[in-house]
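Weekly sync, protein design subgroup
Attendees: M.S., D.O., the rotation student, P.L. (late)

Item 1: inverse folding check
M.S. brought a backbone from last month's batch and wanted to see whether the design step gives back something sensible before we order anything. D.O. pointed out we never logged the input encoding, so this time it goes straight into the notes. C-alpha cells as presented (94 positions):
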C-alpha cells in the first residue's frame, strides 16, 4: 500500500505482494461521511476511466467505522457486511 501524495482526500494505491507487485486497486477516504470514517476501495480494471469525477467505477468495497478505536466493517458492492475488525485484534468474516 502506497500513499498517493497529490490527491483531494487521503488515497492509497493497493499492490499484490511485496516489492513491485502488480497494482490491484486503490482506496480513497470519502470527503463527506456522517459520524464515521469511510474509505471506498476500487479494483483495477473494473470499468470507468480516470480516478476522479463521474468516470470512476463503483467501489468494490466500503470500509466504515472508527479507525482510531480500530472498530470497523467491510461491505461489498451490495452493502452487505463481509468482514468486521475490532480493537481486540479479532477479525470476523461473514
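Designed sequence read out in the meeting:
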Amino acid at each position: 500500500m502506497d500513499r498517493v501524495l497529490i490527491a483531494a482526500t487521503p488515497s492509497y494505491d493497493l499492490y499484490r505482494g511485496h516489492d513491485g507487485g502488480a497494482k490491484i486497486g486503490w482506496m480513497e477516504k470519502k470527503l463527506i461521511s456522517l459520524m464515521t470514517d469511510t474509505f471506498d476501495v476500487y479494483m483495477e480494471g473494473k470499468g470507468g476511466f480516470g480516478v476522479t469525477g463521474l468516470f470512476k467505477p463503483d467501489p468494490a468495497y466500503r470500509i466504515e467505522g472508527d479507525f482510531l478505536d480500530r472498530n470497523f466493517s467491510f461491505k461489498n458492492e451490495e452493502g452487505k457486511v463481509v468482514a468486521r475488525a475490532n480493537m481486540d485484534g479479532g477479525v470476523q468474516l461473514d
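Discussion: Residues 69 and 87 are 6 Å apart (CA to CA). The mean pLDDT is 80.
Action: P.L. to compare against the previous round before Friday.
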